[in-house]
Design a protein that fits this description.
The strands form three sheets. The chain has a six-stranded mixed β-barrel. The chain has a five-stranded mixed β-sheet with strand order 9-11-12-10-13, with helices on one face. With 299 residues, the protein is an alpha+beta fold. The protein is globular. It has five helices and 13 strands. The chain has two domains: 163 residues, Barwin-like endoglucanases, CATH 2.40.40; 92 residues, Alpha-Beta Plaits (2-Layer Sandwich).
Length: 299
């Protein structure tokens, strides 16, 4: 498996800019060039695996990745980024020509091609894209969207966004991308924490909040995002996790009593999270405490 050398060079630059606090490479959009009419979502359909880009393993930046055997059951929440004209016209990992105005994406380990439903957790906008490339090879990023896909999710200006990615699998019925999103399962992969961090400057007093049962379809349209770091059947265990986080300087920690569960669950959450930059810092702080599986919740 080979990754286009020009892309790797640009990704090194992107990683450097991200480490300096920037969310995107300036000027990677079309600039003053006219923007063609944006396409509709990619239409999921059965396709054979590409001869290129499917490993079974490959190496980038001295790190090895294993391509998944199947997209079945894949769902993950984390940070999406986008790439544009710097790669426009280059070959993707499966040897197709990258077109920034098509509904495509890059992913590190899903089989090529795979169709995925991507939902912006901040504004609930959603799209379907076809994964035909590898990346993003920047810490704490789970998918790299084409310019057109990012534009439709309204994440161009920020450069990144907190998203939910769900893969289509033709061994099972195709999910309805336009319908209400079900309660997400436990994530099957954890995002890679970023290499840089900054101490949290926010301080708050931990509190207990009672969470009443809600309708999933209505809750999906809310914009507040939290990081869940544990769900416990025993309230005392939740309180211990809350106390440990608070004593470590983590701000905004609360226990939500989930009355929809039977028996009730006590979910330890941090937030609301304002943006990707805060989420990146929080992931690093949690990793230092041995918590490597934080889960994003949108309400």
């Amino acid at each position: 498996m080979q990754v286009k050398s020009e892309r790797l060079l640009a990704l090194v630059v992107a990683a450097f800019l991200a480490s300096c606090g920037g969310n995107r490479i300036q000027g990677d959009g079309p600039g003053r060039a006219p923007i063609p009419s944006l396409p509709g979502d990619a239409v999921p359909k059965p396709e054979p695996r590409s001869r290129y880009g499917n490993g079974p393993t490959y190496e980038v930046f001295n790190k090895w990745y294993k391509v998944m055997d199947s997209s079945a059951g894949y769902q993950e929440r984390g940070v999406a980024s986008w790439y544009g004209k710097k790669f426009h016209g280059n070959l993707t990992s499966n040897r197709e020509v990258y077109d920034m105005y098509q509904m495509t994406a890059a992913h590190k380990t899903l089989p090529l091609p795979t169709y995925v439903h991507v939902r912006n957790l901040r504004n609930n906008k959603s799209i379907v894209v076809r994964v035909n490339d590898r990346g993003p090879f920047v810490s704490n990023r789970i998918i790299d969207l084409s310019y057109a896909a990012a534009l439709k999710l309204d994440m161009i200006e920020d450069g990144t966004s907190l998203v939910e990615v769900t893969a289509y699998n033709f061994d099972d019925p195709i999910p309805n991308a336009s319908g209400p999103d079900p309660e997400p399962p436990i994530p099957t992969r954890a995002p890679t924490p970023p290499r840089t961090s900054a101490p949290s400057s926010l301080q708050s007093v931990p509190s207990v909040v009672q969470e009443a049962p809600t309708d999933n379809a209505d809750a999906a349209f809310e914009s507040k995002i939290y990081v869940q770091v544990g769900a416990f059947g025993d309230r005392s265990n939740a309180d211990r996790r809350l106390t440990s986080l608070a004593q470590s300087g983590i701000a905004g920690v609360n226990v939500f009593e989930d009355l929809a569960a039977s028996p009730p669950l006590y979910r330890v959450r941090i937030g609301p999270v304002a943006d990707v930059e805060q989420y990146d810092r929080l992931v690093v702080e949690l990793e230092k405490l041995g918590i490597t599986d934080p889960y994003l919740i949108s309400e």
